[in-house]
Hints:
Layout: E1 6-11, H1 12-15, E2 21-23, H2 35-52, E3 62-70, E4 77-82, H3 84-98, H4 103-113, E5 114-115, E6 126-127, E7 129-130, H5 136-144, H6 148-153, H7 161-178, H8 182-195, E8 196-203, H9 206-213, H10 225-235, H11 239-256, H12 258-273, H13 281-288, H14 295-315, H15 324-335, H16 343-353, H17 357-377, H18 381-396, H19 412-422, H20 426-429, H21 432-447, E9 459-462, H22 473-477, H23 481-487, E10 494-497, H24 510-516, H25 527-533, H26 540-557, H27 566-574
Parallel strand pairs: 2-4, 2-7, 3-8
Antiparallel strand pairs: 1-8, 3-4, 5-6, 9-10
Helix pairs in contact: 2-7, 3-4, 3-7, 11-12, 11-14, 12-13, 12-16, 14-16, 15-17, 16-17, 16-18, 17-19
Amino acid sequence: MSKTLVAHEQSLSKxxxxxxxxxxxxxxxxxxxxxxxxxxxxxxxxxFMSALGGPVESMPPYFLGSIVLIKDExxxxxxxxxxxxxxxxxxxLLSAIRAFVTEGHAKEITPLLxxxxxxxxxxxxxxxxxxxxxxxxxxxxxxQRETGFSDLISLNDTLSNSQANIKANAxxxxxxxxxxxxxxxxSLAQFIVTRCYLVVVATPDIDSAYRIFSVLNSRGLDLSxxxxxxxxxxxxxxxxxxxxxxxxxxxxxxxxxxxxxxDLFSHIRMVYRKSKPKGTLIKEFSEHVTEIKQPAIFIxxxxxxxxxAYEEILDANYESNAHAEQVNEHLKWLKRLEFSDWVPPAxxxxxxxxxxxDAMLAFFRDLERLxxxxxxxxxxxxxxxxxxxxxxxxxxxxxDLYDAHSPLQLSATEKFNLYSKLDGPIYEALSxxxxxxxxxxxxxxxxxxxxIYEYDTVTVEHVLPQTPLVTSKWIEWFPEAKDRxxxxxxxxxxxxxxxxxNSAASNYEFDIKKRAYFTRNxxxxxxxxxxxxxxxxWSINTVEARQRELLSVFExxxxxxxxxSPLQELEELLGLDENPGxxxxx
Length: 586
């Protein structure tokens, strides 16, 4: 076998010839181009031809990007590392043109799709492109063979995602080609075959192929890090088991969707890495996820359990004979956070203890508390990663997660800091998303749980306006500027709305604001806002009382009663708390 890398610019007449027998390896992702990418390709081709005009043979070359193959120069067999989407879509397009031209011209297109076998020569049909095992027969039957295209258009069977994409793109092309004249159809076919070029990069092995694919300009959906890991991991599984493990892998990817599947690998990396990433996902997976040296064990014991756990986390759909509803409630609130660093320890715990509902409920109750404490007290990303990494380590070591020094638990000082932030100008302190999550969580606690917050818009609004008019009732209730500054941004003065902010409406007098701004048809879906509607006035005493009431809800739910300031903890440490006369407070 040649050891050199070979690159050529080649027309599609050369690509779809006896020089190549393309095969999509089983480890590749399924065909993923939707009608959006197929439409773009078609319109680019038609647009290029229309802009130039004249005979096709005089048109300049049109480059479709590059494909990367594992191929020996002396052998037509070529495993497609990068380029599956383009090759498949171009084949569908040629098949669609063939379905709308005369029989004579159709016979000229068929050899571009497959070489017919001969009973006399004892040869079988040889297809120019063969998809993965799960899709190859479908593609042969409905796209490459002469009679299949019309059957595909009318097919009513339930299809996999990849086969549904093939059918949808076939229908799109059929609709566009049907509107062309016979001459335009033939010109399009001639242009695709003779004037469209691909840069073909052939390498002798998978390692060199993957080293170059990511730096090449491609029209398609680039391979992701998980595709490369898939090639490496499944490539090391014995041939007799490859197809079975490929199916396991792809079933998990399809269940999660491609984007979430990629996210899962980042979370798995963090479970093992336990620190801020310092290299690529592929490099750190190879260095830290030791199970990939035993690929079948990795898939069965790591990937699949964590994929199931991640799906339950994403959907907040944990299933159990006890506590499932409460666990899912905690998951829903965790998902509202503006960071996802909590996911790796959640995966590590759920993969180990999902069959123990009591443990699940206790863990996710305290994980929610820890994560919201980080949100409110504004932990930095490095602090969060460090804390959650230590928590993951505790889970793996089977340490007591409910010991006072466990990274899952809040220290007395952390409780003090959390309570202090909740009692402060929370509106100013947090981002819009963070304060919305916090206030919705508070509202759900006031409602007794079970409330559903699926509104297109949720905003946090001040009751006492930030800039009340000097002639308004607000100034009578809050005559001192220092009091307005003290109370405006605190929880006791906040409400929730299912509409965007209206600067003018926010300054309405209290009665008008309640009727015209805080409600729709006289009611509000939020307990927090209904509390405001029940008040006849909005004075300092009203806000103070409400502040105490709302803080007590968080205090009880997040168990903050035993909070201690850093000074109090130091006093205890020094043994001064039993003798107030010697307290550091004096």
